[in-house]
Amino acid sequence: MLSPTPPPGTRVLVTGAARGIGRAVADAFAANGARICVLDRDAVPEAPEGWLCRQGSVAVAADVEAAFAAMDAAWGGVDVAHANAGFSMNKPTTELTEAEWRQTVEVNLTGAFLTAQAAARRMLPQGHGLILFTASLFHAVGGADRAAYAATKGGVANLARALACEFGPAGVRVNAIAPGYVETWLINDLIARGRLDGEALMRRSPQRRLVQPAEVAAMACFLASPAAASVNGAVLAVDGGWTANGAP
Ligand SMILES: NC(=O)c1ccc[n+]([C@@H]2O[C@H](COP(=O)([O-])OP(=O)(O)OC[C@H]3O[C@@H](n4cnc5c(N)ncnc54)[C@H](O)[C@@H]3O)[C@@H](O)[C@H]2O)c1
């Protein structure tokens, strides 16, 4: 039987893991005996001993490269790179500034690309590896005030498909996870600022609840396991049925 958990000692980079989904992913891999490197613009609170924590931006190629170089030095390379860092931009299009549009693309899409590129430069020569992206339900659907966010997440999903085709022959898999509304600072902040209606969210979700960060992390760990060896180029919904629901 194929194991549904990542092998112990797996060398994992997670971006945006100071909190939220990224932290849950890092914790879940660590619970499976993985070695963890975090790249985040913020410091990682209460990082467990042994984690490599690098402060920097995923939108800056030198910062991304420095995180992978730290893994090279400590552990001789990388097995899993999860390009998770990102943020939500909810604003009417006519009010969105050029700088806000560019920042959303820089972090959510260019940051994902730079992380994947640096990972591929190491994984392709070694002949194995997994690149993961955190997309969003907005990779597949639109929504008012989500022009920049939906454009970047659609881009991330198709980046995963393109890279899966390019890297597959060399033994490197690429997949994206598309979470629904996850209970994190990002969502709580949008609700608190009146940019999201929390009660309407619950009504719209077939499960009538937010997705938990650990549930997204569980999918990431599964994708890094031997059981997922043929899952490649997939965009996997972890959204409680949100995108399956055509009713209001
Ligand atoms: N929370 C949700 O409902 C939800 C749903 C779908 C997709 N997502 C996606 O999941 C990912 C994580 O979201 P979250 O909810 O955990 O958000 P969060 O705000 O709780 O955490 C995001 C983390 O990314 C870091 N970060 C932001 N910009 C960065 C940059 N330029 N360089 C390095 N680190 C940076 C932040 O410091 C933070 O630690 C994002 O890509 C987001 O779009 C979230």
From TrEMBL:
CDD domains, per the entry: SDR_c
Entry keywords, A to Z: Oxidoreductase
InterPro entries: NAD(P)-bd_dom_sf, Sc_DH/Rdtase_CS, SDR_fam
Superkingdom of the organism of origin: Bacteria
Keyword Oxidoreductase: yes
Gene3D superfamilies, A to Z: NAD(P)-binding Rossmann-like Domain
PROSITE patterns: ADH_SHORT
Recorded family membership: Belongs to the short-chain dehydrogenases/reductases (SDR) family.
UniProt protein name: SDR family oxidoreductase
